[in-house]
Amino acid sequence: MSKGFVSFAEVKQSVTMEAVLSRYGLFAALTRKGKNLAGACPFCKGGSARQFQVNTLKNAWYCFGCKAGGNILDFVAKKEGVSVHTAALRLDSWFELGLMEEKPRAEPPAAPAEPPPAVSVEEPPAPKDLPTENPPLTFTLKTLDPCHEGLAPLGLQTETIEHFGAGYCGKGLLKGRMAIPIHSPRGELLAYAGLAIEEGASPRYLFPPKFYPPLEVFNLHRLEEAGDGDDPLYLAPEIWGVLRLYEAGFTRALGLFDGSLSPEQEEAITGALSLREGFLLMCEGFEDRTVARLARHAAVSLISGVPASPLMRARWKD
Ligand SMILES: [Zn+2]
Fold first, then answer.
1. Residue 306: which pLDDT band, with cuts at 50, 70 and 90?
2. What's the confidence (pLDDT) of residue 91?
3. 129 has a pLDDT exceeding 80
4. What integer best gives the mean pLDDT of the chain?
5. pLDDT recorded at residue 233
6. What is the pLDDT of residues 254-303, one digit of tens each?
7. Alpha carbon of 46 to ligand 1 centroid (Å)
8. How far is the CA of 56 from the centre of ligand 1 (A)?
9. Is residue 156 over pLDDT 60?
10. What pLDDT was estimated at residue 124?
11. Which residues have C-beta under 5 Å from ligand 1, the single-atom ion?
12. If we measure between CA atoms, which residue out of 22, 23, 58, 61 comes closest to residue 41?
């Protein structure tokens, strides 16, 4: 199939999640409750038998195991291991949608992959029945060791690790990882993220099964204690970037979890920006659409220097 232009919106309108799941032989194994389908996740396969959720009304899916979700394009892209653009072309072909148009414009000869689609600033669909709030945690991890030699590969100073209340976790779900507390904007402890210590480990972050990252922005509760001043606000695509920024002297820093932006996170960051000068410095590693959406609220500058994880993948997008 030659490369061509296909409207993502038209593909999304033309094919249902049920049809996509049926094509993969996955539909029959899901149980229906109203507009929702639930079952074992076709990607991570483990965990609860209901962790994979589909909202047929919104044509969206989410897995509480992989913490991944999106629309039919995201599903096919993940299933096939291809870009969203290629997923759209495959859906066009499989379901004989006839939506693909040959682009009159010549493509650059040495393009490494499909040209990136125009960045949309649409907000992602929020499947119904997803959590709207993360409840406070009822316990704290008391044995986290910020000085543990096993943390050395992370390249962080002990003082930084202590500042964030983090440390090496020797037991339980996050065993062998650095546990980093995540707080609500009011400072309530909500969860610990387990950052993998070895580079290339997957998943890079492990969250408790009931915790829903798209509702939170890391380090938001510390923004006020970071003090006033003319410093702009920094935003890192993941937690580790906030720790690196702190180490580099930037205390007014917030973090997302995988470079993607939920409507809740967008609102929280917008609120934080209004207290500042409206300047937002974004580290490397964000999805293009995340940058585009935040650029509606702030004067955004992209900075390099706090490296992003190569493991971060577009999630929860479109
Ligand atoms: Zn999964």
1. low
2. 94
3. no
4. 82
5. 86
6. 999 988 899 899 989 988 876 545 688 888 888 888 888 888 887 888 88
7. 7
8. 18
9. yes
10. 52
11. 41, 43-44, 63, 65-66
12. 61
> What is the Å distance from ligand 1's center to 133 Cα?
21
Task: Please give the pLDDT value at position 75.
Answer: 94
Give the chain as a DSSP string.
----B--HHHHHHHS-HHHHHHHTT-STTSEEETTEEEES-TTT--S-TT-EEEETTTTEEEETTTTEEE-HHHHHHHHHT--HHHHHHHHHHHTT----B--SSPPPTT-SSSPPPPPP-PPPP--TTS-S-PPPPS---TT-BTT-GGGGGG---HHHHHHTT-EEE-SSTTTTEEEEEEE-TT--EEEEEEE-SSTT-SSSEE--TT--GGG--BTGGGTTTT--SSPPEEEESSHHHHHHHHHTT--SEEE-SSS---HHHHHHHHHHHHHTTSEEEE-S---HHHHHHHTTTSEEEE--SSPPPTT----S--
